[in-house]
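Lab notebook: predicted structure, single chain.

Context: the supervisor wants predicted structures on file for every construct in the current expression panel, including those that have not yet been purified. This is the next one on the list. No modifications to the sequence; it matches the entry in the shared construct table.
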Amino acid sequence: MERFREPEPLPDNADAVARMKHRLKTAVGKAVYAIRKSTVEPAFGVIKAVMGFDRFSLRGCTAVSGEWDLACIAWNIKRLHVLSA
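Prediction complete. Output recorded below exactly as produced.
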């Protein structure tokens, strides 16, 4: 099949866009790009969806940072409780 074959060698004078297209057609490039599809931090989605934390109540960088810390502490305590049971 065409899509499983390695692409032709890249010419030496190829620009950056052509080099990237070529890299994504190789087996190694496909494998590296497939890793990017994985969910790295599901905790952010859980904090938003399950815990209902979808917006900040406070204003200002310091206050928001404290509010986020509190949400993360709550998430970690919840996880500790579930994992210890």
